[in-house]
Amino acid sequence: MNLGRRFDIGAGIFVFLIILLTLYLTLNFLTTILLSVVLVFLLKPLYALFFRLTKKKQISSFLSIMLVFILILSLILGITSALLVELSYLQSSGAISDVEIDKTINEIDAWSKSFIPAWLYNSIIEIALRYAQEISDIPIAFATWVFPILQRELTAFGSNLPILFAHLIVVVFFTYYLLIDGKVFIDQAVDLVPQEKQGIVRRFLDELYSIYHTLFTVYFSTSMLSGVMAAIGFSLLGIPYPFLMGVVVAVFTLLPLLGPPFVFIPIAVYYLIVGDLFRCLILLVFGTVVLMVIPENVIRPHLAMMSSRIHPILTLLAYTAPIFVIGIIGVIVGPTLYGFLLAVYRSINAERKGL
């Protein structure tokens, strides 16, 4: 083996080790980078709109990110002000007093007697009284179990604030520059590939872009449609702040393990407490059917099939299965990995068929 060949092998091993070390040092920011990629796909239409108006990449990217930041800040301020107003109203009106709670319980009892057969009602009451004493200490046990957990989590959150802030800065800068130069980075990377392999690599990248566009943009669009339907339904039901509540539903719909129930169930409980049993029941039915069943089983799979021919089973796996393994960050990592494998499969399949 001549000296030049030895040098090439040694240099290759050294570069490979440096790549591994770099990946290790960047490991904690991997999900942050993936989040930036997701944001690029979501902000791409907005960026294109601003670019048509300004003809400046830097300004268009900055305006896209700033608009999202303003919307998030407005949402937080709107939710805070609405909660303060409603809590002040409850306190001043006495709707949560012992008298009102007793009145609500009596109304529920009267409603149950009128709709449930007497033998079934008496059986339910007998069972409830038998177990009431046994479970009377559950609230104390629950509080004893929950409070240390909340304290520990709040302490951890406070200590991790600098790290979270650093991740936020990285997300903002990555998103900013990927919107501007993302296509340039990809073209330069493809140029490093041998000439005879560039065709399949570009086919793979096209498939990957189409799949990611479907998985991320369609998912986001479905959540926004859920928010619109929620705002309309809340407005028809006479619920205060229907637009704000619709935005909250859209945000929670992005989180598979949370979703709309974390919005409409507390509102239903509120109306149950103040004695509006009819609106409580209607809200529960509306939330279950319109905000959960229809978006997840009709709208989202239909859009996914239309845009990039992704089977609903794959979409369900991509967004749900990883959450049980790595937590809520699986919403980002799952679609990224599943989409990558699907793009590889389609590229190889097309190459073998000579398409």
UniProtKB/TrEMBL annotation:
Coiled coil: none annotated. This is AI-2E family transporter. It holds the Pfam family AI-2E_transport. GO terms for cellular component: membrane. It is a multi-pass membrane protein. The keyword Membrane applies. PANTHER family: TRANSMEMBRANE PROTEIN, TRANSPORT PROTEIN MJ1177-RELATED. It is found in: Membrane. The lineage of its organism: Archaea, Methanobacteriati, Methanobacteriota, Stenosarchaea group, Methanomicrobia. The keyword Membrane applies. The chain crosses the membrane at residues 7-27, 33-50, 62-85, 161-179, 211-237, 243-273, 280-299, 319-345. Keywords: Membrane, Transmembrane, Transmembrane helix. Belongs to the autoinducer-2 exporter (AI-2E) (TC 2.A.86) family.
